[in-house]
Amino acid sequence: MRYAQNLRKSRADDPGEPIEATLRRHREALLKCMETHGIHVAPEDVFEEVASGDSLYARPQMLRLLERVERGDYAGVLCMDIQRLGRGSMSDQGAILDAFKSSHTKIITPNKVYDLSDEADETYTEFETFLGRQEYKMIKRRLRRGVRATVESGGYIANAPYGYDNTRVGKAPSLTPNETEAAFVRQMFELYANGMGCQRIADTVNALGAVPRRGQQFNRTTIRGILKNPVYVGQVVWNRKTHVRPGRQNEKHATIYHPKEEWTVVEGLHPAIISQELFHRVQEIFAGRYHSPSFTGIIENPLAGLIVCGNCGHIMQRQADKRGGPMLLCQKQGCIVSSKLNLVEERLIARMKEELSLLVQSQREEAPPKDHTAQTRQALEKQIATAKAQDEKLHDLLEQGIYDTETFLSRHQALSQRIQSLEAAKTQLHASRQLDIPQMTQRLQNLFDCYQDLPAGERNQILKTVIEKAVYYKEKGARPAEFRLDVFLAPIYL
To answer: What domains appear along the chain, each with residue ranges and CATH number?
Structure first.
């Protein structure tokens, strides 16, 4: 018979004890249990994790174990106690116990062997899990009160931001300046106060050897986050946002941002590395200067993700200009070329219509017309799979702390739009075994007739169904209208 072993470090354990020490102590206890019952557990049947008792679906090792239990792979599973299996919601507890009961898998602890097919054991197990749930709620409430009390006394409970290292002041968690990083932080504030923009500051400190805590280089978003963070003047801000863990399988982590009136702002125990005067001067400049807004889920740029700079290969971005309307520009240092966004959009539509017209003409000249359906479908499916894999990677990077929320949301939105467009193209392709380019072009023409009346997001979707990308070429010093666009149609038209 085959057995498995579940090891878990949770909040119920001594928080001062190192994780490995806790797991080692549990391994020793379960080894004695195995000797007592004459049980052997293979290395591949050991499931270890460090997790709180929140959601079952935030515990990948437990999900793997349950999948094996439901298949009936094991005669029993060893764990320290019943509560270790799960103290989350009642539905999670029910799912765990049902898996063991339906598969006739025993739960083996150092104190007792549970057979859920036995009515007495089942009742006792349900009682134990109920007590575990109540204990877990008490622990969470106690932790929340402790966190609030620590913050209100000026303690800093999160990972240290750039420029600081975690330390303790007495028993309270706090921060101490990391002098190497703090020097760069001061430089960032000074440069911005003297008129330099966030992207230029990022390029400057990157060139000087500054390395962020997450990612390989600073960018406009990370610089902006530093410049607006009151931690650098010795303050602690709490309750700015809440991270929501998934409650179901395949759900993603989410971040909820709270309004300022719900924040807790106190003077921290840590020293400031920026003067109040400099910080306030920077905030005043922020208030009067345009910055690319944080992503809100609403697309304001109809050309988002479509226009590529021909000089450096970077995606060109929209930037507001109060004097003459929004601009489309490449913000890479040394490659700052731009044109009015509406001018680029008009040029793009004109070039796109030209390409489609030429395509229709070539289709009519072919006899018989070629059937590209199978080839096109394969190309679409490959691109959809690639985009979905990239999207999954984004979630991993967010969970690992490599991407901040703004970066994640921006890139996730772009990929979602991409996947949506490709799926729509695939659906359209499926409706007809042979592409009818003239007919499709006529439908697009009907859309273009009302194009200018649509919001930017819908215009962006229309464009992405027709073109893969457009490459923007412009010489430095050229007039705003002196640029070239090379348009590449979407795969469905190839």
So the answer is: 3-150 (3.40.50.1390), 164-288 (3.90.1750.20), 307-493 (no CATH)
